[in-house]
């Protein structure tokens, strides 16, 4: 039983919430009425979830010695020795094969997107996570690839405004993650990653403000776009903007008062205000475009 729990921890299933970005096209492309399209998007989301778990396994394999010196990461199964390297490699092979197989079942485009995701994340784990600014763009690329898998990967044409909004949202979460990591050390003990030597709080605060503003503006412009109004037959999507603004502000508030945001998936699941904002946005959006 303990072995199963350790494997479950190795996969980091809470990070699968990030695959919700795959459903962007299904929602805004009015495709949820098509059972076949829903099935394809669900398979693409599962493919990405498995690919994400494989990336975490790779990262833990590469960093297991370094993790021993971290107060929290040393408890990870590979660093703690509760899962052997051989077992982790076997799990990794199964995850990659399953992810690629599911991606291929959906479409060659989804398979290609998942492959790109795995490749750039391997590059991130090996080298790019130490390159200031670029490291956050790599994180953001993962979110954007999820959106593309759920749009172009299944034959849904993505809105340019939504793609731009997705870029801004992904960068916002990335810079907030780095800011939370700085809060986490606050001059006490070694930095959890080398790249933090190059980040200053004021720099990250400015980046967060810029990207948060970008999220609000691009989403607002999407709701008012003539193409959006024509496609959804409503001018009322603008009324979903307050949910987005409140969610962004709440995230920033939690970041600076509770040092949250280091793990976006965990922060969203833990904060009832964020969950309420997301649920309210989703319900109102579905009501307006149904």
Global outline: globular
**How many domains is the backbone divided into?**
2
Largest sheet: none
- Which CATH architecture of the largest domain is right? Orthogonal Bundle
Question: What is the percent of helical residues?
Answer: over 70%
Measured between the Cα atoms of the first and last residue, the distance is 45 Å
What is the total tally of β strands? 0
Mean pLDDT: 87
Layout of SSEs?
Layout: H1 2-11, H2 24-28, H3 35-67, H4 77-80, H5 85-106, H6 108-126, H7 134-149, H8 160-185, H9 201-224, H10 226-232, H11 241-258, H12 264-270, H13 272-289
Can you describe this structure?
This protein has 290 residues and is mainly α. It is 72% helix and 0% strand. It contains 13 helices and no strands. The chain has helices at 2-11, 24-28, 35-67, 77-80, 85-106, 108-126, 134-149, 160-185, 201-224, 226-232, 241-258, 264-270, 272-289. The radius of gyration is 19 Å and the shape is globular. 37% of the residues are buried. The mean pLDDT is 87.
Quick synopsis:
The chain is mainly alpha-helical and 290 residues long. It has helices spanning 2-11, 24-28, 35-67, 77-80, 85-106, 108-126, 134-149, 160-185, 201-224, 226-232, 241-258, 264-270, 272-289.
List keywords for this structure.
290 residues, mainly alpha, Tetracycline Repressor, domain 2, 0% strand
């Amino acid at each position: 039983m303990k072995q199963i729990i350790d494997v479950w921890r190795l996969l980091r299933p809470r990070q699968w919430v990030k695959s919700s970005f795959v459903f962007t096209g299904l929602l805004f492309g009015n495709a949820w009425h098509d059972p076949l399209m829903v099935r394809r998007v669900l398979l693409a989301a599962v493919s990405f979830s498995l690919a994400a778990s494989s990336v975490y396994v790779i990262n833990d394999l590469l960093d297991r010695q370094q993790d021993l010196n971290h107060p929290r990461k040393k408890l990870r199964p590979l660093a703690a020795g509760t899962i052997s390297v051989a077992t982790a490699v076997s799990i990794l092979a199964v995850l990659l094969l399953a992810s690629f197989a599911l991606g291929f079942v959906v479409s060659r485009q989804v398979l290609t997107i998942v492959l790109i995701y795995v490749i750039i994340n391997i590059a991130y784990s090996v080298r790019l996570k130490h390159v200031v600014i670029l490291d956050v763009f790599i994180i953001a690329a993962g979110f954007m690839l999820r959106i593309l898998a759920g749009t172009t990967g299944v034959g849904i044409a993505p809105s340019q405004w939504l793609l731009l909004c997705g870029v801004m949202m992904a960068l916002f979460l990335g810079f907030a993650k780095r800011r939370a990591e700085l809060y986490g050390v606050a001059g006490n003990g070694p930095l959890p990653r080398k790249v933090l030597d190059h980040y200053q709080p004021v720099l990250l605060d400015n980046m967060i403000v810029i990207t948060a503003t970008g999220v609000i503006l691009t989403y607002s412009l999407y709701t008012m776009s003539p193409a959006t109004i024509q496609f959804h037959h409503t001018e009322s999507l603008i009324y979903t903007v307050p949910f987005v603004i409140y969610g962004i502000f709440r995230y920033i508030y939690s970041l600076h008062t509770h040092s949250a945001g280091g793990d976006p998936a965990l922060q969203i699941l833990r904060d009832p205000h964020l969950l309420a904002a997301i649920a309210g946005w989703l319900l109102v959006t579905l009501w307006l475009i149904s």
